[in-house]
């Protein structure tokens, strides 16, 4: 639908933003979409994760921590829909297990 495409374009724009606060808004929007439109997310999972996996390894620790926390919630919401992106998720999470930041490490 047009509304779905517009939501995805907004999501991609926020996740790719220069400002860390805007990227955090994108992560929050992704969680909202997972709750309100799981079919939209499931049917576009690979494209969405092309953008989202970058936030799991974001240079800003607040964005990274929020992305990891949102990912934990998404696992319960999307379950099998995440299968096509599981390897990329595990790689992204694994990179954060060695983080010196306690919040990032705990979220990973």
From TrEMBL:
InterPro entries attached to this UniProt entry: ARM-like, ARM-type_fold
The name this protein goes by in its record: TGRM2 protein
């Amino acid at each position: 639908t047009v509304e779905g495409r517009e939501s995805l374009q907004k999501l991609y724009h926020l996740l790719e933003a220069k400002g860390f606060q805007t990227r955090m808004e994108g992560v929050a929007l992704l969680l909202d979409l997972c709750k309100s439109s799981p079919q939209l997310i499931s049917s576009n999972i690979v494209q969405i994760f092309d953008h989202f996996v970058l936030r799991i390894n974001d240079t800003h620790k607040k964005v990274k921590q929020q992305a990891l926390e949102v990912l934990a919630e998404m696992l319960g919401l999307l379950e099998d829909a995440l299968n096509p992106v599981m390897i990329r998720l595990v790689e992204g999470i694994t990179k954060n297990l060695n983080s010196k930041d306690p919040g990032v490490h705990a979220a990973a």
